[in-house]
Amino acid sequence: MGGVAEVKGGLPVRRVIMLGAPGSGKGTQALHLAESLAVPAISTGEMLREAVAAGSELGARVEGVMAAGALVADDLMGEVVASRLERDDVRAGFILDGYPRTTGQAETLDGILARAGVKIERVLLLEVPEAELIRRALGRGRADDREEVIRERLRVYREKTEPLISFYRERGLLATVDGYQPVATVTAALIAALGAD
Ligand code: B4P
């Protein structure tokens, strides 16, 4: 497995979506991949948590939704992501962590990227057993990491987000990686998946 320098020089794939259940490690891996590919990691969950912490109008709108384990409305998320993807730092690429989470969001993303003349190049799916997802989230201890909220987020994931797996598989973009391994092992597998055809 090559180091960071080799990845920067050798991998053309730089517009990437991280897909996976809550607690599957999307955020953790997005940061490692962003460093390896020298592109920004964009976490919608993190952007929303920052808005809540800052007490902004967006934060006030999403705080209760997140605390309940529900999804923020597609239209609002579309605005948040569209304005983030207008910034100059994404010209060379990006790792999207936590967006899209519904087929509606995936279609909105297609529109945003089409206007910029670019496309998603790979969708990386992290697979982790449900018992481990719950164990990790309880260990993380975020405001929305109480057991009943975690179970609701998992239910919402199965209902709204899992359909994206076939959505992207049909487009030939999906690569699946076993996320139930040490962090560095998962990162190496993801980088290998970016290099594969
Ligand atoms: P997110 O912030 O996206 O959080 P997540 O899916 O719960 O976690 P992630 O998969 O990133 O796991 P992590 O790396 O942290 O979403 C939070 C909320 O925001 C949503 O419920 C929703 O309300 C809202 N939201 C966000 N985006 C939205 C959208 N597009 N539309 C609507 N609403 C949206 O890892 C979890 C834990 O496991 C960590 O403690 C980590 O250290 C540990 N871990 C990671 N990898 C590990 C490994 N390999 N082994 C052991 N532990 C590991």
Task: Provide tags for this entry.
single chain, 197 residues, alpha/beta, Rossmann fold, five-stranded parallel sheet, 10 helices, globular, disordered N terminus, binds BIS(adenosine)-5'-tetraphosphate
SS-derived structural category: alpha/beta
Number of domains: 1
In whole angstroms, how far apart are the ends? 16 Å
Tell me roughly what share of residues is in helical segments. Answer: 55-70%
Count of individual helical segments: 10
Please provide a written account of the structure.
The protein is an alpha/beta fold and 197 residues long. It has one domain (14-195): 3-Layer(aba) Sandwich (Rossmann fold), CATH 3.40.50. Helix content is 57%, strand content 12%. It has helices spanning 4-10, 26-37, 44-54, 57-67, 74-84, 103-116, 130-140, 147-161, 163-170, 183-195, and strands spanning 15-20, 41-43, 94-97, 122-127, 174-178. A 5-stranded parallel beta sheet has the order 2-3-1-4-5, sandwiched between helices. Helix 3 (44-54) crosses helix 4 and helix 5 (74-84) packs parallel to helix 6. BIS(adenosine)-5'-tetraphosphate (B4P) is lined by residues 20, 22-28, 43-45, 48, 65-66, 69, 71-72, 77, 98-99, 101, 105, 136, 139-140, 144, 153, 179, 182-183, 186.
